[in-house]
Every structure is written in C-alpha cells, then in structure tokens.
Design brief:
The protein has 107 residues and is an alpha+beta fold. Helices cover 22% and strands 36% of the residues. A hairpin with a 5-residue loop joins strand 3 and strand 4.
Length: 107
C-alpha cells in the first residue's frame, strides 16, 4: 500500500511540474519560418506563439504574426495570422511582396 502511495505522489508531482513548465512557456514567440527576397535586401519572417497545450502534429496550427524586415534590419510591417501554416512562400517583385490570401505589401 505504501508503494502505491509513493507512486501516486510521484505522478502528481510530475504532472504539476509539466503543467508549471507549460505555463512558463505560454506566450513565448519563436521564429517559425523565414523567406528572404531574391535580392536578399528584405525578409518575411513568420513568428509562432507558443500554445499552452497542443496535441502532437498541431504545432503549425498555432497563431502568430508575419513581419516584413527591410534592408537595414528594421521592421517595416507586421500582421497577425490565425495559423502560421497559412503563410506560404511569398511572391517577391521589386516593388512588393505578397502571400496568397494573406497580405500584399509595398516594399
């Protein structure tokens, strides 16, 4: 009986540790994807917001935002996205960048 009690306490402690770690990392933002322009002067960076809980295989379902970085490394534009996986390869022109159904920005 005592072994079961120790095992139960250890499992509860482990569950609490996992929950605490999940709460600490919630809201953390990480670079998910980067698309450089053909001339390497600009970049489109997709950031993913850490979710408290996600089932395996759903990491790309997370919300986030897209940032356009200019030639001097400055942020030029920012737009939130519901799911980072929706940001596909952009189409770059000398005057603009666009992502199908999401954004169309002048450079």
């Amino acid at each position: 009986m005592q072994k079961a009690s120790i095992l139960g306490s250890a499992l509860v402690g482990l569950a609490c540790l996992i929950m605490f770690t999940a709460l600490l990392t919630a809201g953390e933002v990480r670079e998910y994807r980067r698309f450089d322009s053909p001339d390497k002067r600009n970049a489109l960076i997709v950031y993913r917001e850490q979710q408290i809980f996600a089932t395996p295989g759903q990491a790309s379902d997370a919300p986030g935002y897209v940032v356009l970085i200019g030639p001097k490394g400055r942020e030029l534009k920012r737009q939130p996205v519901d799911m980072v996986q929706l940001v596909t390869a952009p189409v770059w022109t000398p005057q603009s960048v666009s992502v199908k159904l999401l954004l169309d920005w002048k450079l």
